[in-house]
Every structure is written in C-alpha cells, then in structure tokens.
Amino acid sequence: MAKAADDEKRPKRLIDRWRRFKQNGSLETLIRIVATDGRAHMRGYALATVLLVVVGMTTAASAWIMRDVVNHIFVSRDPMMLWILSAAVIGIFVVKGLASWAQAIVLGRVGNRIVAETQRRFYDSFLRFGLDFFTERASSELINTVVRGAGAIRSVLDTVIMSLARDLVSLISLVAVMLWQAPLMSLAAFTVAPIAIFFVTGLIKRMRKIAQSEYGASTMIVALVQETVYGNKVVKAFGLDHHMRGRMAETIAAVEQRQNKMASLQARTSPLMETLGGVSIAAVIFYAGWNTINFGTSPGEFMSFVTALLLAYEPAKRLARVQIGLEMSLVGARAMYEILDKPPSGTERDDEPALDFSAGRIELRDVDFAYRKGEPVLKGVSFVVERGERIALVGPSGGGKSTIIALIQRFYDATAGAVLVDGQDVRKVAVSSLRRHIASVSQDVFLFSGTVRDNIRLGRLSATDEEVEEAARDAYAFDFIANLPKGFDTDIGENGVQLSGGQRQRLAIARAILKDAPILLLDEATSALDSESERNIQLALDRLVEGRTSVVIAHRLSTILNADRIVVIDRGEVVDIGTHAELLRRGGLYAMLYRYQFSEEKPLVAAQ
Ligand code: ADP
C-alpha cells in the first residue's frame, strides 16, 4: 500500500522527472536512437545543427540590436544609424530565413531517409522469423509498427535536434543578451522557470500512460479493417455488418478519446506558460518603466531586454513541452525496437552447410513435438519415406498430420527425436537448401497481389513465360486462365477474389510443378468441389506426384488407393502403417475411418 501511494506521488523535482524517464526505458530508447540512426546520419544532422544554431543566434541578434535601435535612433536621433541599423535588421532576418529554409530541407531529407531505412530493416528482420513468430503476433501489430514506429524514430531525432540546436541555443543566447543588458531584471524574470517546470512535470507521467494505450487502440483499428477485408464473406453471410460497425465505432472512439486527452494535456501547458510569461513580462515592464520615468535610465537596454524576454518565451515553452512530445514518439520507437531486437528464429538459420541431396529419403525418428510446453502434439512418431514413394497420412482431424508436414519443412523444430532427409538432420543443414528441394501445396492457397503469371512464377522466379504456361497446362489450369479477361496477365488482387477454390488450387499446383522439387508435401483440400474441378485437380495432382517422393494428407479415396503406403496418425502417434489392403485386413482405426470418411466416394481414377 505504502509503495503504491509512493508511486502515485507526483515527481516534484526535475531530478525525479529524469529518474522516471530513465526507469521506464525512455532514456535508453532515446540514447539508442541518437547513437544509431542519429550517428549514421551525423553529417546531415551536423549541417542541420549548424543551420539551427544560426537561426538561434539570429534570433538573439534581433533582440541585441534593439538597444542600439532605441538609443541611436530614438534617443540620439542619429540619421546615419537609421540607415545602418535598418539594413542590419534586414540582414539578420534574411540570414535567419535562409538558414531556416536550408535546415528544413536538410532535416526533411535525413528524416525521410531514416524512415525508409527503418522500414526496410524492420521488414528484413521479420522475414528472419519462423512460423512461431507469425502465429504469435497479429499482423495488425506489425503493420502499425512499421507505419508508426519508423516515423517515431524520425520524430525523436527531429525533436532532439530542434530542441538542442534551435531552442536551447536561442534560449541560452537570449538569456545571455538579457543578462548583458539588464542583469538585475533578468534574475527577477528567471524565477518563473521553476514554477513552470513544477507544473509541466505532472503532465508528463499522465501523457506516457495515455500514449501507450492510444498506440494499442490504433493497432486495433488496423486489425478490425483487416478482419473485415479477409472475413468479408463471413461478415456478409452472417449479417455482421452491424456488429462490426459497433466494434469499429467503439475502437475508433477509444482512439479519439485518447488522442483528445493527449491534445488537451499537451495544450494545458499553453495557458500555464502564457500566464506565467505575461506576469513576468508585466513585472519587467513595470520595473524598467519605473526606473526610466523616475531615474532617467536609458531605454535602449530595457528595449533590448524586453525583446529578448519576449523572444525567449517561445523556445522556453517548446523546451518545457519537449519531453511530452518525446514520450509520444518513444512509444512507437520502443515497439519497433522490441521486434528488431528479437533474435532470428532457430528454424530460419541458413549458415549451416547445404543439404547434400541424393535420393530424397525422408525419415522421422522418434519425433516428439509440442507447440506449447506441456501440450504434446506428436509423440514418438517414426516412419520412413523411400525415394519415389507415395505416402498418405490419414487420421482424425487434430491428430498432427499438418504438424508432420510442417516439421519436414523445418517450420518448427522437433522437441525430441529428429527429422532426417537423406540421413541428414534438418536442423544441421541450411534451411534454404532444404526448402529448395521441397514443394508444398497446402489447402488454403495464398495468392499474392499481381497477375496470374506472377503468382505461378513464385514457384521459380527465374522461369520463362513459356515455362509458366507449360506448368499451368500440366496443372490443368491453362484453359480457365486463358478464359480470364486478360489471360495470364489478369490481375488477381491480393486475395484472388475472382477465382474459385478449385482454380486457386490448380494455381498452387502449377507453382509446385514449376518449382520441380524432388520432394512433394501436399495437404489435399477437404472442401467439396464441383466434379469438373475435382477431376481436373485429381489429374493435376497425379501429374505433380509423378516421379517425386510425396507425403500427402489424404482426403480423397483415390489418394489412399494410389498410395504406396498409408501412415495412420491418431492423437500424435503413428497407430499403423501399411497398404490400403493390409490396413483394411487388420481392421482397427483405419478400417473405421475408411468406412466413414472415404468409402462413400467413388474413385475418380481407378485404383491400381
Ligand atoms: P491435423 O493436420 O491432423 O488435423 P494438426 O497437425 O493441424 O492436425 O494439429 C495437431 C494439434 O496441434 C491440434 O491439437 C492443434 O490444435 C494443434 N496445433 C496446430 N497448429 C498449432 C499452432 N500453430 N499452435 C498451437 N497449436 C497448434
């Protein structure tokens, strides 16, 4: 209790504010940004700094010159000085204008470069992650981070440079002018600073909390848009428009409310600083005016002082708020670093020696596997797939068939036992060399944005147009592609919405044919297709399997009838292995599955 009360206590001193900034990792993140991206673009930032210092100094010069303007022009009435000083004022402002213009260009360019580099680095880094990373994280989180995190790094650096080079230099030089022109009045004016710091400190802690939750809520918006796009069929079919609208409205309202809160916290510094500024300026006017009226002090110093004070007020205000702005950006930067710092997944290591591929014999040796600790999915799975053999995996859903397919491709690592290809442990070879020898076709075919041709070519990027078309022909996809509005050049959009399930599958088969890998892993579609599609797919698959070592999760009668051997998987264990006839003879799970799952189907292609 005592500790909670302590935590709640507002940090009252500058030192507390600093300590908190350090504690929650903000300082660490800030230092890191400056030391990495800042240092990498040191030349640009150095140039911007020089230009900003010029801006700061010219601001001070414009205050400085006020003394001579008043004393020489208004008090001494010197006509010569009228010309000289007017020209000097023009000069000062022209220099300031040019420096501001140049620094905006320099900072803009460097900032854009940093955003581009960070986005590239971020994307590269998440390509090095394995499947476990992508199942753990919502894509909306990654999207929001790549969009906002990169901008956040840029704005942190902008804020640091602007505050140090422009605002701090302006403030220090203006304070110097004030001290030089009227030391006593300066001391009186500076008493305002601690009061301002005291008020601003309290706002910062609240700001940090709100910025964090605003970031989370904005990720939700991305997630909802994504779900609505991907799940639009479900949304329409179940009439969920209203429900989705409600969820979105709630999330948007939450972001809006938090952003309003942030805006109001940020704005709260304004009336505070205005009032404090007004009071100190009035006090100075009163004191200096009193001296001039009653004791005839020359007004030049006073004018110079007041100008400096007025000009100091803006940079001082910005500096008082700088930490609030930084906190907002650091939330995004931290989210980005969290991902950049994650070590690449073990399954994606590519620095091992390449697979020495000869026959393409696959062996699972006593494989145990669990996605989560304590929840075994595979237990002591062992079987061998000889060169050129067709193996069908059969078993109740959830038994672990897809997991076996994933382990052969090293999407995950076995927790015990080993997966071997040609006698080599898949964990001991470069993953790219392993996957190069494997083609896989899964149930849910993902089509990328681009044309039909582009999508097939993903099987082998170096394939010529003729080879792509040949693969399409072998996959029994040529005719339907030729009938599309622009044939192979038809754009299918990121989800290939205009294609039927059967057509999408044939595109995936064409991809696999084009890859021409000696090992084939296949998850047959369970979804019912019209008999024309079914027949074409069957023919395409037969062509694909021909001459390759294949492991197929079987959902079709013809597949099990054509398989050399069938591996029956139940609850993570191999319960039987044999040919269709052997297994049927033995009775057991296979015979039962066959009766319920397969026997009602008519084989489309006669069993051998
Ligand atoms: P099958 O292909 O035989 O239907 P799976 O290999 O897909 O079986 O699934 C086996 C078990 O592993 C199931 O209990 C399933 O819930 C679980 N599982 C599958 N994928 C994941 C995953 N990415 N994370 C956690 N559990 C998973």
From TrEMBL:
Residue ranges annotated for the ABC transmembrane type-1 domain, each copy included: 46-328
All residue ranges annotated as the ABC transporter domain in the record: 362-596
Record-linked Pfam families: ABC_membrane, ABC_tran
Superkingdom assignment: Bacteria
Mode of membrane association: Multi-pass membrane protein
GO molecular function, one term: ABC-type transporter activity
PANTHER family reported in the protein's UniProt record: ATP-BINDING CASSETTE SUB-FAMILY B (PTHR24221), ATP-BINDING CASSETTE SUB-FAMILY B MEMBER 6 (PTHR24221:SF654)
Subcellular location per the Swiss-Prot or TrEMBL entry: Cell membrane
Similarity section: Belongs to the ABC transporter superfamily.
Protein name: ATP-binding cassette subfamily B protein
